[in-house]
Amino acid sequence: IFLPSFQDLFGVSMVVPLMNLHIKSLGASHTVAGIIGSLYGIMQLFSSTFVGCWSDIVGRRYSLLVCILLSALGYFLLGTSTTVFLFAISRVPVGIFKHTLSISKALLSDLVSERDRPLVMGRFNAASSVGFILGPVVGGYLTELEDGFYLTSFICASIFLLNAGLVWMLPWSEENAGSREHQQGNKGTNGFSAKTNCDLHSKSATNGAVTSGSLFQSPWVQVATVLKRIKGIACSDLWDIFLVRLLMSVAILLYYSNFSLALDERFGVKPLFAGYLMSYSSALGVLAGCLLGPITRLYQHNTYRILLHSSTLTCTLILLYASALSIWMVVLSSTFLAFSTTIGRTCIIDLELTIGGNEASGTLLGVGQSVTSVGRIVAPLLSGIAQEFSPCGPPSLGVGLALVAILIMNANKQKYCSHGNIKLKNQ
């Protein structure tokens, strides 16, 4: 599972940085390029919850294969796009079905115990982040060749086809057995999960195992089941977790939104240095994912405390960046922010699955992805408004949002602690 995740982001990060250059070479204006980019984000926003929930119903293998193959189709069409219209069409299957990493995380959640989940998720994020670091370098080299963009797109599509083969070869009988054992081991917590999610856990779905009739159900039955599960999420008391995720996502996006421009205006630093600094932060993020095991043991597997402390550190570091008097303070804040944000992202996912229950992990991860997509839509608008006042406006606003998230976590401390006690007794 780690290998396809690495190849996934490696292939995508080869293509994505080159897309704006390609669409402009096709004669599109900045406005048209922006509209196509926004439509992709909107498709991701609405499709992530439905695809995640669908993976709970039909099983991880079938849904993951469909998403990988249709994403490969999208990148293949991108490699044949000689007009703006074809370029826009190629983004449709990718916008709807490029949720391969979310489904892979749901599959990992099915296979491992709650105690080991933060460690495994951290390693998963580290593996995919390595692909994201290496991909742009290879893509930049390939684009120097004749018809380099088209070649890069075809290579990306081929990588997705290779991933489909790897997923097909996975030992699914072990997944099903592991899911049953995991389900039996979590019987003690099912009462809390059922209370939290109302009707979220349908009897027809198991943890990632494909039931014999689910693939052959009427599409209308599958749609009705998806809508029922989404209604269950809406009726649940998980609102505070998703709100914390939204606020922290927007805060971090505001930090990075005008990073290069702000460094230039505040310290006279060239964009090249800003690029090196972001690559440095990404490399540290990989290291942070590998250190999650010792950190969770240090905190005695208390995900809530890790999330609270990492969010507090993130808020402090963004404040340090906003008030930095020299470039070295920016380097210092970027160094530790790479650790705090990586740990925070992993912990918020683990908390969603712990409180919400594993039987609907695909749905929960899909909703979480939709929440993050909302942040990606809102953050540029807030950044533009805040930047009218000062280059430090966006990170200063991010500090305020992070503080609100910390206050929400403190206000709901009793809920997390009570569930932590139930979890500890079952372990």
TrEMBL record:
It is a multi-pass membrane protein. Keywords: Membrane, Transmembrane, Transmembrane helix, Transport. Residues 1-417 form the Major facilitator superfamily (MFS) profile domain. InterPro entries: MFS, MFS_dom, MFS_trans_sf, Tet-R_TetA/multi-R_MdtG-like. The keyword Transmembrane applies. It is found in: Membrane. PROSITE patterns: MFS (PS50850). One of its GO terms (molecular function) is transmembrane transporter activity. The chain crosses the membrane at residues 62-89, 124-143, 149-170, 238-257, 277-296, 317-339. It holds the Pfam family MFS_1. The keyword Membrane applies. Belongs to the major facilitator superfamily. PANTHER family: MAJOR FACILITATOR SUPERFAMILY DOMAIN-CONTAINING PROTEIN 10, MAJOR FACILITATOR SUPERFAMILY DOMAIN-CONTAINING PROTEIN 9. This is MFSD9 protein.
